[in-house]
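EI: anyone free to look at a 99-residue chain?
SC: sure, send it
EI:
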Amino acid sequence: MSKIFKDLEDVVSKTSKQIEKGVGKLSSIIDVEAKKVDLKSQIGNHERKIRQAYTQLGEAYYQYVENNVEMKQANIIVDSIKANKKVIDLLSKQLEELK
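SC: here you go
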């Protein structure tokens, strides 16, 4: 009878070790996927900022052409676009490293 219990204990022990190993792998995969989602979200936010900056730049140019209003903020807007593009490049590289 004790042999059966010993065998059963061995099976349970091996099974629990396999489950622990599987849970560890799953946890690691979930962490990587969460990082990917976060990076994609950040990229989306910076892309939205770029679209807004392009809209501001277009409006400023329109006012310049139609009403001869000076484009005082154009350089600031262009710098903002450049900065956001650089951030997107860096985030995209980080995302690529996770794949």
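EI: The chain has a mean pLDDT of 90.
SC: 👍
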